[in-house]
Specification:
CATH architecture of the largest domain: Roll
Radius of gyration: 26 Å
Strand content: 15-25%
Structural class: alpha+beta
CATH superfamily of the largest domain: Dipeptide-binding Protein, Domain 3
Shape: globular
Largest sheet: 7 strands, mixed
Number of helices: 18
Distance between the termini: 34 Å
Helix content: 25-40%
Length: 583
């Protein structure tokens, strides 16, 4: 072929025109739903923050999408000692720490003093675990690591104590060499490789944290090692995460093609849905008021996905705050929630009424076992049905000294959300119908502030009587539910359970001993029996919470988005077909 000047010019012109298409970034448009309270793995407690950390930091293990079994991530393999107390993880030696330039978005490897790339190593795992457990860090999730020998002793110590350094050194985690880390547990725990997947046990960059302190996780300061790194964080507005080209996972068969995640923080479900309809978001939760219209629409109904999810929606009780300090009052309030009507008329997402804390996909669960809170279940699930539950609730409230609710007044609080507001309004109406002379005040609070307001350290006077939360699995074992969330000694215990409770102190002691025993028990059948009794105590006798429904995932997905459905989002496995999207 003879190359004329005209031919060359035409090729150059076409190349210039095609370059934007060839170089176009694949962007995922996503709604976080709120401002993430933190991007610091040691401080994250909520699903929004955890999603961010999952994108930016690798764990020793990950959880498989289907069965949630532990699979390799930073660790390529691991083994357990014969007595079940020692877990040894053998790590990859090729994962660099990276930094994103907030001005250009360029991602580069972080270099050490000798000019070599800093590779994630076992000492940084040790530092991350001890930092989470250090009481100076103030991690609200540190109790999950109490299974590690010395973890609780360190976390509950006075930082000014003379033996504090000794306690820090005594935590059962050590680097055997640069890429081998050993954990010594206080008792056997076959689920520990799943705990090793959690953000609070991930390697953390000590040198960056020392330099920037509380600001280390801000754009320009933060260094990460996962699939994405942070380019931009405009607080209360949006965050931009960009692809880390040095992450080994891009070579795996299940890798996605997302170059950038543009994550907005739109709280109002109706606004986010409008953005979805306008193709400004690729994925969004289906708003409760729109469910009927979505199902009836021939196009939108094809974009609606409903599937089970390992989460439970519940109302927690501040058990030391009158008048809900009486377990009969708490039980009456839980009984008076018509779970079936709430699901059919308000949430409309094929959720299931809950009579236990843990849903069916959790090991040791007793979901829909009618030995526990049969009043929470309809007759077709073997329960007593709402009619009988309502009568029993009214009797309990009368016997507690509040006939028809006379003289009874409480505050129900939820975080800002149109969906949570509709649920709260429906339950408020149910309570008023059951106890017409009572007063139920509904209050709302912004998510980050709300989480602080309902933690167990908050002044009792500032705590609402009843508050809304959801719990989603960190790993699929009742230890992560009934123990780590509810246990008064080693759990989050937002319920303020106390052995000194004048009504149910002895039951709380029994509950605490049961969950401790179950966590260390090796026989799975014995564990299941112990957890069943613990669920009955928590829900039906102590009544720390009112489980309302087991979640389903109710989402709208654009036809160009191919995504996974892990309980923690794995954005690195998602793909956007830009041709279908019309770019």
């Amino acid at each position: 072929m003879r190359w004329t000047k005209f031919t060359v010019l035409m090729i150059l012109a076409v190349s210039v025109l095609m370059w934007p298409v060839l170089a176009q970034k694949v962007v995922l448009n996503y709604n976080l739903g709120t401002e993430p309270p933190t991007a610091d793995p040691a401080l994250a407690t909520d699903t929004t923050s955890v999603d961010i950390d999952e994108a930016m930091f690798l764990g020793l293990t990950d959880l498989a999408e289907v069965d949630l079994a532990p699979v390799p991530e930073l660790a390529t393999r691991w083994e357990n000692s014969q007595d079940g107390l020692i877990w040894t993880f053998h790590m990859r030696n090729d994962v660099p720490w990276v930094h994103c330039d907030p001005d250009t978005g360029e991602v580069t490897k972080v270099l050490d003093a000798d000019g070599n790339p800093r590779i994630v190593n076992a000492n940084e795992v040790v530092y991350g675990v001890k930092r989470t457990l250090d009481p100076n860090t103030g991690s609200d999730y540190s109790y999950v690591l109490y299974i590690i020998k010395g973890g609780k002793d360190l976390n509950t110590a006075d930082p000014a104590a003379e033996n504090f350094q000794e306690l820090l050194d005594g935590v059962g985690v050590e680097a055997l060499d640069d890429f081998t880390v050993k954990f010594t547990l206080r008792a056997p725990g076959g689920y520990f490789p799943q705990i090793a997947s959690m953000w609070i046990a991930r390697p953390m960059p000590e040198w960056v944290i020392d330099e920037y302190g509380d600001d280390w996780a801000e754009p320009g300061n933060i260094v990460t090692n996962g699939a994405y790194c942070m380019k931009e964080w405009v607080h209360e507005d949006h965050m931009v995460l960009v692809k880390n080209p040095f992450w080994y996972g891009w070579d795996l068969p299940d890798a996605g093609n997302i170059d950038e995640i543009y994550a907005v923080m739109v709280v109002e479900a109706s606004t986010a849905y409008a953005m979805y309809l306008n193709d400004e978001l690729d994925n969004v939760g289906a708003p409760l008021p729109e469910m009927d219209a979505i199902r009836a629409d021939p196009v939108l109904s094809q974009e609606l996905l409903i599937m089970p999810r390992g989460c439970t929606y519940y109302y927690g009780f501040t058990t030391t705050k009158p008048p809900v300090d009486d377990p009969n009052v708490r039980k009456a309030l839980s009984m008076a929630i018509d779970r079936v009507t709430l699901i059919n008329e308000v949430t409309k997402g094929e959720q299931l009424p809950a009579n236990t804390f843990a849903p069916s996909m959790i090991f040791g669960n007793a979901a829909h076992d009618t030995d526990i809170a049969p009043w929470a279940l309809p007759e077709d699930l073997g329960g007593t049905g709402y009619g009988q539950a309502l009568e029993d609730a009214q009797d309990l409230m009368t016997n507690a000294g509040y006939p028809e609710g006379e003289g009874f007044e409480i505050v129900l609080m939820h975080n800002v959300s149109e969906g949570h507001a509709r649920i709260a309004q429906a339950i408020q109406a149910m309570w008023l119908e059951a106890f017409p002379k009572a007063k139920f005040i509904v209050e709302t609070m912004e998510w980050k502030v709300y989480l602080k307001a309902i933690q167990k350290e908050s002044p009792l006077a500032d705590m609402p009587h009843v508050w809304r939360l959801g719990w989603c699995l960190d790993y699929p074992d009742e230890n992560n539910w009934i123990h780590e969330v509810v246990n008064p000694e080693e759990g989050a215990n937002r319920y303020r359970l106390s052995y000194d409770d004048p009504y149910v102190g002895d039951l709380i002691k029994e509950f605490s001993a049961l969950t401790m025993q179950a966590g260390a028990e090796g026989d799975p059948d014995v564990r299941k029996a112990l957890y069943k009794r613990a669920e009955k105590l928590a829900i039906d006798e102590i009544v720390a919470m009112a489980p309302i429904y087991y979640y389903t995932r109710v989402v709208m997905i654009k036809p160009w988005l191919d995504r996974t459905f892990d309980d923690t989002n794995h954005w690195a496995k998602w793909s956007v077909d830009v041709a279908v999207r019309g770019e």
